[in-house]
Each structure stands twice: as structure tokens, then as C-alpha cells.
UniProtKB/TrEMBL annotation:
Residues 87-219 form the Fatty acid hydroxylase domain. It is found in: Endomembrane system. This is Sterol desaturase family protein. Its EC number is 1.-.-.-. It is a multi-pass membrane protein. GO terms for biological process: lipid biosynthetic process; membrane lipid metabolic process. GO terms for cellular component: endomembrane system; membrane. It is an enzyme of class 1 (oxidoreductase). Keywords: Lipid metabolism, Membrane, Oxidoreductase, Transmembrane, Transmembrane helix. It comes from Kitasatospora camelliae.
Amino acid sequence: MPNLPDVVLWSIPAFVLLTVVEAVSYRFHPDEDEQGYSGKDTATSLGMGLGSLFFDAGWRVPVALAYSALYELTPLRVPVLWWTLPLMLLGQDFLYYWSHRGHHVIRILWASHVVHHSSRRYNLSTALRQPWTGTATTWIFYLPMVLAGVHPAALAFCSSVSLVYQFWIHTERIGTLPRPVEFLLNTPSHHRVHHASQGGYLDRNFGGILIVFDRLFGTFTPETTRPVYGLTKNLDTYNPLRVATHEYAAIGRDLARAAGWGDRVRHLTKGPGWQPATTDHRPEGSPA
């Protein structure tokens, strides 16, 4: 197959430049309704992003081996051509929707994804606040593409394109865009809803590049009131290690005091807010 560029690597200078530009814009054009930047929060987001690059490099080895083994087993092959690549991107975006949705409603997956929602600010640096176990918890959702004959390198390229696209939607500096754009694509307005902690906004707008899957599957909510960002129970730390692991630790505590194996399984597979009827305990960082 043809060599495909590492779009994330090539985009890093643009990430840095745009983040600096946005931060400076708050100094010259402040908005009292917008959160803007804070030094500690931004440092935590950057630390999480750098950590994710390091840990993902390790997670990718076993994932690449699994993908490659499955790719060799399937007789199907999808060539990388000018007309198949858009179809691959569409397929990846469809599976991303279900992966993202699953990471909000299955607690063991939420334990990874909660990192990305842990900031009470919403700016371009928030896009860099990535989990350290992301690859380990998302790879299984993309197995259908590999089994359909998509080369693992092509899948990696599509995932990178999605990640780069989603960088620019983490901003309050852009309002709503023309109606056709808002109808079809994931935009800053749609993604602000996704990062909000209000009840009516929770677990909505899971799309990556497209917002049409949310419209099709009933998870779309437009931005009508100003979002309040973060978790329903926010963290009181900027320590990257605790940000990365706090929900795993909460799950461990719940498993240790669970009454039986049934509750232990439910602690892992039910939603982040689930608790046995006999307790009012709610896990730290629960979105609901």
C-alpha cells in the first residue's frame, strides 16, 4: 500500500501555534463569559498530552500485532485509492461514534476517557488532555474495518485525521457556523455541548468529524445555554498522575467493597454513576 503521512506528527507545530494564538487572543479580546486559560490547567493538559504520546507508543505494539494478525486472516482487501480513502474515513468515523459513546456509558472505558473531560476550561489546550490508556480501550471498536480488509496503516491514518480534525473544535472563540456546516460536521458549538456537565447536555454529541450519526441515533443536542465544563464532581488536583488514574482507583475501591461478583461485574460494565441500591456512594468524576 502507498505510504501515508503521519498527520498528527505534521500537525504538532500547528497545534502549538494555534494554542498560543488563542491564549493571546484572551489577553487582547477578553470575554467575561468565557473561561480562557489558566497556567495550572494548561500545564496539566500539556502534561497529559505528552504522557499519552509516550504510553500510546507502548500500547500500539500489541494492538498493531493483533490488527496485523487479523488482517492476514481475512481474505478481503481494500486498496488505498482516491475513492476508497473517503469511504475508509467514513467507516472510521462511524466506528468512532460508537467507541466514543461506549466510553461514556461503560465505566471501565469511562475510566480512560474521563481524563479528556476533567478540565473545567474549554480551549485548544483541552484537546491535548488525552488519556494514557486511550489506545488500549479503543482498538477493539475498529476490528470490523480490519476484518473488512482495511490495512492497519490505513486505519491508523484515518484515526489520525479524525484526531487532528477534532483539535480545532475545542474552543469558545468560534460561535456557530453556517447551517449546512452545523448540520453535517462536528463543530465547536456541538462539541461544547459534549464537554458540558449540565444534565441536559450529558452524554450527547459523540461525533468525531461528522455530527450526522448523533442525529441518526438520537444523541444530538444543540447548544442553547452556555455550557458549564468539567465533571459533575470535579477533581481538586492538577497532578497528571492522579488525573490519569483517579477513576481506575475509584473502581478499585468499589470492587474491593462489592457484595459479590455480580456487583463487581456491574461496577465495570454499567454506567459511571451506577452503584448498588444499598449505597449512595457515587464514583469520583461521574458524569451523571
